[in-house]
Every structure is written in C-alpha cells, then in structure tokens.
Amino acid sequence: MGQINEKEIKQINTFISHFSSKNEILPLLLVESGSRMWGFASLDSDFDVRGLHLTSLTTELSISKNEEQFEYLKELMDVVSYDINKHFNLLISSNPNLLEQLQSDIVYINNFSKFGINYKEFKKKIFSLVNLKSLFYHYISMAHKNYDKYILSENKFTYKKSLYVLRSLFCAKYIIEKEKVPPVIFRAVINELNIDKKYLNFINEILEQKEKSNEKTKIENSKVISSLIEDLFQEIESLTPKETGDKTELMRYLNEIAIQIKIKAYLK
Fold it and tell me: Are 43 and 35 within 8 A, CB to CB?
C-alpha cells in the first residue's frame, strides 16, 4: 500500500475503528490523501485519512441537524470524513480534493460493494461527468492561495509548500493539454506533459529532497522556483479550458447512488 508498512496500516485501522465507533458512523470509503497519495511523502509526513460515511439510523431520523463532517487529529494521525450528502454535493462541484481521493491507491476501507455498487464503475462514471473547466479553476485557485501564503510572503519556504504550488499548476496544465482528470501521482502528471528539461530536472530534484527531508525543512527562495511558477501562471492563465461534463446527469447519478446506499443501510 504505497509508502505505508503493515504496522502503520494496523495502527491506522485501529484508529479508524475508534473514530467510527465514537462518532457512530459507518465509513463508506477511507483512503490516504495528501503527500503520501501524491507520491512525495517526507520522512515525518503525517497520515491524512479522508473519506465519507453514513450516519447512524438514529442520527439520520433525528430532528437535530446532522453533523456534516467528523474530524480527529492525534499526533501523526489525521482523519476527516464527510457525510454522504456533503461528499456527493462537493463531487458535483468538481472538487479536486475529493476527485483525487477517488484515485488514491492507499485504501483503508471501501464498503461500496456491500451496497451493490461497483466502485471502479462508480469512479469511471464520475470522471466522465465532471466539469474540467471548474476543476481547472479550482487548481488555479489552490496554486494562488499557497503561492501567496507560503512563497511570496517568506524569504524561505519548505519543499512541501513549493510542491503544493507546482502540483496544482501542473494539474491545471494537464487539464488543458490532456482534457481529462489528472493522475493523482504527481510524477505521473509531469511525465505526461511537455516540460522544459531544465525545469523537469529541477522538479525531480525537489521531489527527491522532499522525500529525504522532514516536513518543515526549508529551502532558500530559489529564483528557479519563482521563475518556473511565474511562467506557469502566465502560461496557464492565458488559456481557457473547454466546458465538459454534465452536472445535471452527475447530480442524478449521485442521488441515485445515495438512495441505493441508504435504502440498503437503513431498511435492511
């Protein structure tokens, strides 16, 4: 399972079990997200467990407003789970974080089959219906947010934050060039793109350093990074991606899946 050993998997599964029991939820999907999912974890990267769940029948039928999400952080364990309604509505808006989580190859829990749903076909359907134009602008927004907060405002910044900016920009570039949802592994994204060899070598160097260092290891505000990022912003923001997908059909499909899951869960 990616960059996680058997001992860590056991600890995470125990943590998830306590998390689920405490909040009286049934996890539908819990996967590893963040740098481990993207393929560039540091020596001390935490475990970003993300996914969706069903609330208990009592909670579902209660007149009280349901909690839309539960989260818990303890040392290196970080779990965040959305209820199925919130999660599916975010998918309808082409949320990049959730689309990436659907591609994670580090899966702790996947209960879709228990409700008669083929998870592979479920993902394929979603990716065929999402709006790549919306996804493109989500990535641009993420790049600007991290660039403004961690690079422009500091003389030094971490390998981690520089990769956050670069990953978002190259995912946006991937959407323009390939007209499909980008792969979740960052190296797979850049390897499929036409990138100047000087920049490609530099990005690979950053990736190697990130994996050999700690999360807070800082690098000098490299002119090469700044130049690359500014060039990418200029190049990508001058382009307009095609409108794709079918939001109405995606909403209909996810509503159908949610109803199927809830009927099997609550009316068994």
Answer: no
Q: Which residues contact 218 (CB under 8 A, 6 or more apart)?
A: 156, 157, 158
Is the residue at 1 inside a domain? Answer: no
Mean pLDDT confidence for 144-158: 81
Residues 114 and 136 placed together within one structural domain of the fold? no
Domain that holds residue 48: 6-129+246-266
pTM greater than 0.85: yes
Residue 111 and residue 139 in one domain: no
CA distance 224 to 9: 38
Q: Kindly state the average pLDDT of the residues 233-253.
A: 95
Q: Which residues contact 230 (CB under 8 A, 6 or more apart)?
A: none
Helix %, strand %, coil % of the chain (to 5): 60, 15, 25
Give the integer Cα–Cα distance in Å for 102 and 120: 10
- Domain count within the chain: 2
